[in-house]
Amino acid sequence: MKIKILGVTLDMELEELANPDVAEKYEQDIAKTVEVIHESMECETGSEGIRKQCQAIIDAFTDIFGEKAAKDVLGERTNLFRCLDAFEEFTSIYPKHVTPAIEKRAEKYSRSRIDGR
Predict the structure, then answer these.
(1) What whole-number distance in Å separates Cα of residue 114 and Cα of residue 93?
(2) Confidence bin at 8 (pLDDT 50/70/90)
(3) Separation CA 15–CA 37 (nearest Å)
(4) Rounded to the nearest 10 degrees, how much is the dihedral formed by the CA atoms of 86, 77, 65, 98?
(5) What is the pLDDT of residues 14-37, one digit of tens each?
(6) Which of 70, 90, 97, 115 could form a Cys-Cys staple with 61, CB 3.0–4.6 A?
(7) Could you tell me how far CA 65 lies from the centroid of its own chain?
(8) For the chain, what is the mean pLDDT?
(9) pLDDT band at residue 79 using 50, 70 and 90 as cut-offs
(10) pTM of the model
(11) d(Cα 5, Cα 89) in Å, to the nearest integer?
(12) Do residues 7 and 15 touch, judged by C-beta distance below 8 A?
């Protein structure tokens, strides 16, 4: 299954996100982005805060999906609303898609099924 964010299908299969190195990078990117979003509230100007938030989200997308995918989802000239909407979908990839897929596959190895119950 391909990953889709803001209606854009990305060139990454869901299974690739089950790689522990990718999962760790994803977790770190979310933590870093959330930190930048909170720090940007202290910026002297609104435009500086917007720029920092957008850049943090772009960096997270680029880190996981690559530069082309980040531009496909966020556009060449993006805005904070689009970035925040994309980041919301980005943060839900694991809880909505990856974790349920892993649980479904792991279910066949549950104790009760192995023991024949």
Answers:
(1) 30
(2) very high
(3) 29
(4) 10
(5) 889 999 999 999 999 999 999 999
(6) 70
(7) 9
(8) 91
(9) very high
(10) 0.87
(11) 6
(12) no
